[in-house]
Amino acid sequence: MGFTMHQKVLFKHCDPAGIVFYPRYFEMMNDCVEAFFDGVGHPFETLHQSGAVPTAQIEAKFTAPSRHGDQLAIDLRVTRVGWSSLGIDLTARTEAETRFEASAVLVHVGGDGRPVPWPTDLKASLMREMEGR
Predict the structure, then answer these.
(1) Which residues is 70 bridged to in the sheet?
(2) Beta-strand pair 55-62/71-81
């Protein structure tokens, strides 16, 4: 189980060689995270009114190039829910192959940038996602 966001590789994602420029993958990952929070009923724009959910750690492995026009499915799976942190795995794939794999830790922070606990209802939603609903 998990969340999937579909992303067509656009011209803006590509370098002059015609493949995705790797920083654009990180933008796609962040877009997926934002869509995930929308999907669990806690829009990023609401969370960011009084704090934020920055990425504290990320590790990525790029396994094959993506080209303009490719259709990616970016899967997000919750691996750990902490007091203020969230562990996730992200995988981008086409029908034929995996394009990247990443693991990240997000942290819920208050307006002062310091970690704060997840709101109770959001934490419950994140736990349901981790447990596969």
Answers:
(1) none
(2) unpaired
Q: pLDDT > 90: what percent of the chain?
A: 94
% of the chain surpassing 70 pLDDT: 98
Average pLDDT estimate for 112-133? 93
Please give the Cα distance from 76 to 22 (Å, whole number): 18
| Long-range contacts of the stretch 11-14 (C-beta < 8 A, 24+) | 11/68, 13/66, 13/68, 14/67, 14/68
One of 1.20.58.90, 3.40.50.1110, 3.10.129.10, 3.40.50.2000 is the CATH number of 3-130, namely 3.10.129.10
